[in-house]
Hints:
Elements: E1 8-13, H1 19-31, E2 35-40, H2 44-47, H3 50-57, H4 75-81, E3 85-91, H5 93-100, H6 107-114, E4 122-126, H7 130-134, H8 136-147, E5 151-152, E6 156-159, E7 165-169, H9 173-183, E8 193-198, E9 203-206, E10 209-211, H10 218-229, E11 233-238, E12 250-253, H11 257-268, E13 273-276, E14 283-285, E15 306-308, H12 312-317, H13 320-323, E16 328-335, H14 339-350, E17 354-359, H15 360-363, E18 368-375, E19 378-386, H16 387-404
Helix pairs in contact: 1-3, 1-9, 4-6, 5-8, 10-16
Cytidine-5'-triphosphate (CTP) is lined by residues 197, 257, 276-278, 280, 282, 309, 311-313, 331-334, 346, 350.
Amino acid sequence: MKDLAGKHIVLGLSGGVACYKSAELCRLFVKAGASVQVVMSAAAQQFITPVTMQALSQHTVYGSQWDARVPNNMAHIQLTRQADLCVIAPASADLIAKLAHGMADDLLSLMCLARPIDRVPLMLAPAMNKEMWQHPATQRNLKQVALDGAQVLGVGCGEQACGESGDGRMLEPAEILDEVIAMFVPKVLKGQHVLVTAGPTFEAIDPVRGITNLSSGKMGFAIARAATEAGATVTLVAGPVNLPTPRGVHRVDVKSALNMLDAVENKASVANVFIATAAVADWRPVNASDRKIKKDGSGQPPALAFVENPDILARLAQSPRGLSQELYCVGFAAESHDLLVNAQAKRLRKGVPLLIGNIGPDTFGQDDNALLLVDETGARELSRDTKLSLARKLIADIAIRISAGVQK
Length: 408
Ligand code: CTP
């Protein structure tokens, strides 16, 4: 199912060069399954035409409170009555100032004021020059609109259309889309701190070589994203992977299993949930050479000695907070066969209430997976789906387990 299926979004554009990004944003909303009603201020229409927005949204675009196409001639009332959300992107300094004062002298500002405030959330994606952004008046207005219930998104930093560089760029359309998707997710983990490990580890042999594995980190990153969407504070401890950090997630990059253990132990006292998805190397070379190991001409490979890495999951599960389930520990198992038997045995060996089994070769590097949730009562399957959908289901399941306070 598409992330925004069945949602009706009113997309408002106020004036700013960032209007060009709103065309893409509209397209992304539609692609995600939403129906989109576009409203443009007069200033917005100086930057991009209603023709483009109508073509992309496939609905008539409104720009004036006097537009007679609305049967009762009250566009400012009618447009939000069926809406699930109003997103203003870009939200100019001028529009934010108007909203802060309840001014309503054009369709866009009127519509924001006239929306049913308890039923239709308002999200603002500001965009402006860095001096306008930093100005105390703008910052004051932003605080006021947030106090009045609007969700104010951050801004990007970088080159601006005016040639200056700094804070004030509108977030990218994909980032705004993620914020909108997250807004609709029930906040079942609000107040919880979720700690996630993801990806492989890299165990150095010398400065240019090491031992690693094929874990892509995708499942762990999807879980971190799903936990944030569900309202948790999330720390993601990531081995060497090439993935973007999900919005709102605090990421700590590590290399080796020992680095990962350090980073995890650093956060373990504040976390309530620990989800270990990382494919931690079981062994590391005893002593990594600080110089590149050269061939010596004998044809003999160098003798490498290995030592076992600490089991991060088992260590946390056996800590006092793990044992009391103040820290709810969840393990993953990548198996090649006999999934249920192996996963149940691993769950008991690690001492965790919940272990998620999957068939490693079927999922490494893929965007989809199938999961088997194994607890003391048995097993439940989450059938093949995208890793993000599975992560959301898993997070919802974990939230129920935590709130029930039962070890399952
Ligand atoms: N894990 C960990 N630290 C390790 C090894 C594993 O935290 N040093 C965690 C993984 O993140 C995963 C779970 O333990 O959640 C299972 O790891 P896996 O490597 O599949 O299990 P092993 O105990 O190594 O068993 P085996 O290799 O025999 O299958």
